Amino acid sequence: MRTLFLGATGGDLASEAAVAEALSAFPSSPPVLQGIRPSRLARAFPGLRAVLGLEELGRQDFARAVLVGPQRDEASWLSSLSLLGRLAAAGAEVHVHNLGLSEFPAMLDPPTEARAVLAAAGRFSVRDHATQDFVLSWQIGRIPLLAAYPEAWLSPDPALSTELRGRPLFGLSLGAWRDPRGLRRGAIGRVPGLAARLAGHALLPLPAEPEAVREAGALAGLLETLGAPPMPLALPLAADRAGWMERITPARLAALVAACDVVLTETDLVAAFAARARVPCIGLSGVQGNTVHR
User: Fold this and answer.
1) What is the per-residue pLDDT across 232-263, written as a single tens digit (0 to 9) for each?
2) Helix crossing, 268-277 with 13-25: angle to 10°?
């Protein structure tokens, strides 16, 4: 069944992981991805076509359309809803799979015409309880299935794990925000005994988006801010934005998380991978847009 997957964001590993899982949940030959940064999506999913808009496809008939994964951009969300409506009007099956919503007005209160399309969707699942609450507030007569991060079960790819230097490993996954209120300051000290436990660890950065990749000097400063002891860098690639985004995939990130002895994270995907691998994980939350509390 020819399927169009909508709402992906290339370079956002949470979005790419959700797409990878959705491709298994909705087999298609050949699938097409529509989303932000299509060149990155094409590299992340070799053999699939990725486009920014349907006009790039010419006249294409799709039997099925699937809106998938975390939505972090308001304009892209509205565009995806519009495309979903057009495809539904043309006779395509419509599904919503593993949806994640942010606290944007257009996501909390989608247009009336879009609500009708979403209400008629075949399958409807969400990643987390906050998104489930948002959907219930739309009052469209649907109680979406709580999928609870099915992408956490992607098979890990150890391609980068062989490059790790040093043991044990402290995995650190911070968002790109600048922490103007000092929420990160001294965070490790809030967990009794953690700073002492981390002595002798190597630092493994686990950025889940391009903007979160930091150079080695910035990482050393973050360790000091958090109240952690100095640590050698276990994977220099993770401090090189271009190199990291060229080689990282969700499956490789899953393998790196599984290699850690303890993880501190602000990101939901890394927390989900840690839970799947039974790696001790501490969530650092408290800012708008931070997803680990979900």
Assistant:
1) 999 999 999 999 999 999 999 999 999 999 99
2) 60
Question: Comparing C-alpha atoms, which of 274, 193, 176 is closest to residue 228?
Answer: 193
Helix (H, G, I), strand (E, B), or coil: what is residue 5? strand
170 contacts 231 by C-beta, under 8 angstroms = yes
Paired sense of beta strands 145-146 and 124-126, if any: parallel
Supply the pTM of this predicted model: 0.93
Strands (E), 75-218: 93-100, 124-126, 145-146, 169-173, 202-205
pLDDT higher than 60, residue 289: no
User: Looking up tokens 């680990």, which residue turns up?
Assistant: 292
> Is residue 246 helix, strand or coil?
helix
d(CA 131, CA 107): 9
Task: Decide if pLDDT at 55 tops 80.
Answer: no
**How buried is residue 273: exposed, middle or buried, by Cβ count under 10 Å (0-12/13-18/19+)?**
buried
What does the DSSP 8-state code read for residue 39?
A: H
Residues 6+ apart with CB under 8 A from 170: 198, 201, 202, 203, 204, 228, 231, 260, 261, 262, 263, 264
Q: Roughly how many angstroms between the first and final C-alpha of the chain, as a whole number? A: 33
